Amino acid sequence: MSDLGTATATAAPGASAAHNDTGTRQARHRVLLAPVTVTPSKPLTPSHLKGLLWADVMYRATRHVADVTLRYSHTTYHPTEQTLGFWEFLDRRYGDRDYTALDERAVGDLYVAFRAADENVPAAALRPYLDAVEHGWTHPAARRVLGIWAEQYAELGLTDPGLLAHQPPGLALDEMVERLGALGMCLDQRALGGPVFLDLTRHGLPLRTLVGADGRPNYLACALRELLPLAPRFDEVALLYDSQLDPDYQRLARVLAELGPTVVRVPVGRVPIDGTIRSARQGDWRDDHAGALLAAARSGHRPEAVRLGVRLYFIAVLGPGQAEGYRPDLLHQCLGRAERLLAAADADPLPPAVPLPERVARHRGSRLHVDPYRLTSSLLGRGRRPAGDLLTGVYL
User: Fold this and answer.
1) CA nearest 85: which of 135, 43, 146, 141?
2) Helix count and strand count (H, E) for the chain
3) Contact 288, 46 (CB under 8 A)
4) Which of 168, 217, 210 is nearest to 185 (CA)?
5) What are the pLDDT digits (tens) for 27-78?
6) Which of helix, strand or coil describes residue 66?
7) pLDDT (tens digit, 9 = 90+) per residue, 218-256?
8) What is the DSSP string of 111-154?
9) How far apart (Å, rounded) are the C-alpha atoms in residues 368 and 329?
């Protein structure tokens, strides 16, 4: 499946294929991890980091027990109105501005101004941008943010799924609508000048607009363009998303399950700051963003401890919900804990008796993918000394 243009792992270092009781080699299960994307128009906030780290540990752990593909394409979701509308706003207000001199916070401030303007831009004004996206174009402001994110991904040890690559979805919009129609899940009123609806009423779910009467697709339409052709290739599809998007992801899971795979929804709660769940469109990230976090962490800790420590905090300490708020003091404690875990692993270089794939598989539960929360929480028990192969194979 290298043609997907995604991060794909058929076997991780040290992993082995499964065998049955007679020693016969068995085919490894195929798992697709499809996290919700972050629009490249702002700094990465604690909520964004939590989701990205969650997906990364799931991917890197699961590759030891399955053939796993991480599909995370910004190209697929550029056609949404919030992205194209922002780009049109920038060009109309600032013309051919040089965005290379801006950092992600400055671009984020422009995005806040766009949302505050709340302008009703006609679909005709966005159509040239949509056509350009379909042919591989990305606005310079978004390229600037993605370039900064790529550097932060590298420092955090996050798998790069192709942030700066052109990765179009497998279906054109009309093809996606046709596929849904064949499944009996589409109400297409375009011939009457109306919208396209996802129709899951027979499953007890209300109609959901996919394409407006003006031809503009929403995020769910883009996700279906991406995942409809991919899902049948896998045994399990894991959808990782912001818990506030749960209604749409229930619909998405219902559609994909019709194509054969087991579909698992993995909602990940946002991170409250000062007791409040904030939207990035409000721009209230202050110093609570990836750049500031990394600057503070790298001043007192080695790179390996930063990578392990942020995972301990954002996954094991914050957990899957959103009850726990962002606390830099606890993050600092996790960085210190990471230093101690790394030192303990260095002091005990002997390989463990149980192979890494078998140890990782204990944290799958009834699923094919590995649960990042269960696995990462296991590192925090009193007296736990994780082996170095687990740290290097999943967390570093």
Assistant:
1) 141
2) 15, 8
3) yes
4) 210
5) 789 999 999 999 999 999 999 999 999 999 999 999 999 999 999 999 999 9
6) coil
7) 999 999 999 999 999 999 999 999 999 999 999 999 999
8) HHHHHHH-----HHHHHHHHHHHHTT---HHHHHHHHHHHHHHH
9) 35
